[in-house]
Write a structure and sequence with these properties.
It is a single chain. The chain is an alpha/beta fold. The chain folds into six domains: 109 residues, LON domain-like (Archaeosine Trna-guanine Transglycosylase, Chain: A, domain 4, Roll); 86 residues, Up-down Bundle (Methane Monooxygenase Hydroxylase, Chain G, domain 1); 51 residues; 178 residues, 3-Layer(aba) Sandwich (Rossmann fold); 84 residues, Helicase, Ruva Protein, domain 3, CATH 1.10.8; 186 residues, 2-Layer Sandwich (Ribosomal Protein S5, domain 2). Helix content is 45%, strand content 18%. Helix 17 packs across helix 18, helix 17 packs parallel to helix 19 and helix 24 packs across helix 27. The radius of gyration is 50 Å and the shape is elongated. The protein starts with 8 loop residues before the first strand and ends with a helix. It comes from Ruminococcus bromii.
Length: 803
């Protein structure tokens, strides 16, 4: 040593990144940091000694004395070489272990006072000798399974005589994490240091052995696959050369046999044969071969020649539909007509039917019942939210993960080429950048074109003319005109009160009794209870909420049965209110006496008809017209037309012709928070204005509906069935309707028709004579402003001239 081991030394410190230097090791590395280069230069100017220690965090760029380990090695700088890019390569030789005692301040580099550690030269025991032999044996095993090491390292290990020297030399040449090497460097007793190295060697040998086993297994798997592939290809080549191929028919031949059995047209069969020839020339297991197999399997799964036999017996079909659904007479009648023609002529393909109506009225379920009644399979295709055209026509088979469209997929599931396909929510289709699925349906729903429907995946024409398509929609206005033109639209209106009652008694209550575990003897609903559910707890076009309420009542009864032991339940109106709470909907309160300026109108809503009272107040003023009650634009225009009608016929009606100058008129529709619109309240507002101006009361048991013109004529309206039910439910005995709506009385519920008197009228004069008390019938001549005396005088003059 060139220094005294008994004295502390003040040396420049060189921090190392991920590197640990041991005593008696000769090593070279590059130095690039400014402080490290300064430390080297300072050492070269003195005694060439420098203190080497590792950084605790190898990623730190500018460590201080507290960021390095305290234990390191005093080393001698043997050689310094300048390198490009401001780096310096040094060759150093480790001298001995040392520990930092105190840091020394220096602005240019790290400096510290270190204490050298001198190895003990005591006598070694037999245990130490055995430990050295064990370590050397483990190192030999490491050399067998690790990358080749230089021969001089193996030679130097054999020359090591001391435990500490052996431990340092082996650790310096092992591929280990720098933290593991640092822990060994910090172990000063030689025997403990050698034991630590033994532990590291045993662990490294175990890990290396596992890595070698894993590598060998992976290599064997790869070699086995390659071996099978080459043997299979050699066998195929030999059999082809010898012409002795006695193996079963390959996939291509099997597919060719299936094509023959399909009896397709020549063009379609040629396309499939071409795919078979391509498959026969491809190597086994190729990706393209798998695509062709999937395509051919899909084609063969289609029901090209499979059809179900129709069981059409008109009386039985009628009875089956009546059993499953109450009402819906228009739909049943149309289906029966189509089936009757189908029995007489197989050439009749039928129209595509679109069932349009509010949610919950049974559009989808009646379509499924039709399929069951005629013995056909049915498949429902939900179109709500579909945006991609490929959902209908499929994807090209060249795309990854391609598949047929929903139409072909439904035919696969049905297993026949003449099922009933229910295209549900066709009005909910949407378009985006991927295409317009609505346009893709044009070919599907055209009976003149769908006999050669081509799916993008199948690429073969498939006959859809035998399929019965039934579509459903809530709002037909959102369906594009070309698609709407291809369908026969059957409007399904909302259920009336009586229809809901019968549906509940015949279908909903029996269904829920079965699902909730009751029998008809254990739980019974009274008529008033069912009507209470319909009138006071639901406001809907269909019966879904009604069914949920019935199920809720039964669930509550089930709890009572299991907790209190009650066996028999009779659900009446009071029990409904006890189980479901207070009434959610209160019926409109109508006047019980005849009043001035109040007339009962009739309105149509998506959940049924409603009574719409119209109130008119006349005050002294300057001729202002005030309209309130959330009236829409059309309804406001109807109010203005009604005022003009009264004003233009003031003399015939016996009203002051200057009322528009000295009177203010306020027209109001109660429940102002509910928006109202439409022209059908015109006659109602005109009658209310007339009553308020003449101070004549209007009959409280009369309701009316109709659009009014400036000349006082009454035009037809829609929704008469629902409006009549609202009048019946609220105790109205007489309903005034437009003359042109007289044919619509056929659709009115029989119970309503028997209880309510319907009076068709042509103009306002006829309506006001019925509804307003103390009003004399105005003749047509008086209403139209014709002076009969002038007419008679003109007639005499004409006769004189003629004579």
């Amino acid at each position: 040593m060139d220094f005294d081991m008994q004295k502390n030394l003040t040396l420049p410190v060189l921090p190392l990144r991920g590197l640990v230097v041991f005593p008696k090791s000769l090593i070279h590395f590059d130095v690039g940091r400014k402080k490290s280069i300064t430390a080297i230069n300072k050492a070269m100017k003195a005694d060439q000694l420098v203190f080497l220690t590792s950084q605790k965090d190898a990623a730190m760029n500018d460590p201080d004395i507290f960021d390095v380990y305290n234990t390191g090695v005093i080393a001698k700088v043997v050689q310094v070489l300048k390198q490009p890019e401001n780096t310096t390569r040094i060759v150093i030789e480790g001298q001995c272990r040392a520990t930092i005692i105190n840091p020394v301040f220096d602005e240019k580099c790290l400096v510290a006072e270190v204490k050298p550690y001198e190895e003990e030269t005591e006598y070694y025991t037999a245990r130490d000798s055995a430990l050295m032999r064990t370590v050397k044996n483990e190192f030999d095993k490491y050399l067998e399974i690790s990358p080749k090491m230089p021969s001089d390292i193996i030679f130097k290990v054999a020359l090591c005589k001391r435990p500490g020297e052996l431990a340092d030399f082996i650790t310096a040449n092992l591929i280990l994490d720098y933290r593991v090497k640092q822990s060994i460097l910090e172990t000063f007793p030689e025997s403990e240091r050698l034991e630590a190295v033994l532990d590291v060697l045993v662990n490294e040998n175990f890990v290396l052995k596992l890595e070698d086993e894993i590598s060998q297994k992976a290599k064997m798997r790869i070699d086995e696959n390659q071996r099978d592939y080459f043997l299979r290809e050699q066998k195929r080549a030999i059999e082809e050369e010898l012409g002795e191929d006695d193996s079963p028919m390959d996939d291509a031949e099997n597919y060719a046999d299936k094509i023959d059995k399909l009896n397709l047209d020549e063009k379609s069969a040629d396309i499939l044969y071409k795919e078979c020839r391509k498959l026969s020339k491809m190597p086994y297991g190729s990706q393209e071969a798998a695509v062709i197999r999937t395509y051919l399997d899909t084609v063969f799964d289609l029901p090209w020649n499979k059809s179900s036999k129709d069981k059409i017996v008109i009386p039985k079909v009628q009875k089956a539909l009546d059993k499953t659904h109450y009402g819906l007479d228009k739909v049943k009648k149309r289906i029966i007509e189509q089936l009757a023609v189908r029995v007489l002529s197989e050439k009749q393909k039928g129209q595509i039917i679109c069932l349009a109506g509010p949610p919950g009225v049974g559009k989808t379920s009646i379509a499924q019942s039709i399929a069951k009644a005629i013995g056909r399979k049915s498949e429902r295709i939900a179109l709500g939210g579909v945006r991609d055209e490929a959902e209908i026509r499929g994807h090209r088979k060249t795309y990854i993960g391609s598949m047929p469209g929903r139409i072909i997929n439904a035919l696969q599931h049905a297993g026949t080429n003449n099922p009933v396909l229910i295209l549900d929510e066709i009005d909910k289709l949407a378009a985006d950048y991927k295409g317009d699925p609505t346009s893709a349906l044009l070919e599907v729903l055209d009976i003149e074109q769908n006999n050669k429907f081509v799916d993008h995946y199948i690429e073969l024409p498939f006959d859809l003319s035998n399929v019965m398509f039934i579509t459903t929609a809530n709002d037909i206005s959102t369906i594009p005109a070309p698609l709407r033109d291809r369908m026969e639209i059957i409007e399904i209106s909302s259920y009336t009160r009586e229809e809901k009652f019968h549906i509940a008694k015949k279908h909903l209550i029996p269904k829920q009794l079965e699902e909730c575990g009751f029998t008809s003897k254990e739980l019974k609903f009274t008529q008033k209870a069912v009507y209470a559910l319909i009138d006071f707890y639901t406001r809907e076009a269909g019966v879904r909420t009604l069914e949920r309420l019935i199920a809720s009542v039964m669930r509550k009864c089930a709890v009572v049965k299991l907790t209190e032991g009650t066996e028999i339940f009779k659900i009446d109106e009071k029990e409904i209110e006890r189980l479901l709470g207070h009434k959610k909907f209160i019926p409109d309160s109508l006047a019980k006496t005849d009043e001035i300026g109040i007339v009962n109108g009739l309105a149509w809503t998506s959940v049924g008809g409603e009574i719409l009272p119209i109130e008119v107040a006349v005050m002294e003023g300057t001729g202002k017209l005030e309209l309130t009650g959330s009236l829409g634009d059309v309804m406001q225009e109807s109010a203005k037309a009604a005022v003009t009608c009264i004003r233009s016929h003031a003399s015939a009606l016996g009203i002051d012709s200057d009322f528009y100058k000295n009177k203010d008129i306020h027209i109001h529709a109660p429940e102002g928070a509910v928006p109202k619109d439409g022209p059908s309240a015109g006659i109602t507002m005109a009658t209310a204005i007339y009553s308020a101006l003449t101070l004549k009361p209007v009959r409280h048991d009369v309701a009316m509906t109709g659009e009014i013109t400036l000349r006082g004529n009454i035009l037809p309206i829609g929704g008469l069935k629902e409006k009549s039910m609202a009048a019946f439910k609220n105790g109205i005995t007489t309903v005034i309707i437009p003359k042109d709506n007289e044919p619509d009385l056929e659709d009115v519920d029989k119970t309503v028709f028997d209880k309510v008197k319907f009076i068709p009228v042509r103009n306002f004069s006829e309506a006001v004579a019925i509804a307003v008390n103390n009003t004399v019938r105005i003749t047509d001549n008086q209403w139209n402003g014709i002076d009969m005396s002038a007419v008679r005088s003109a007639s005499k003059t004409a006769n004189i001239v003629k004579q």
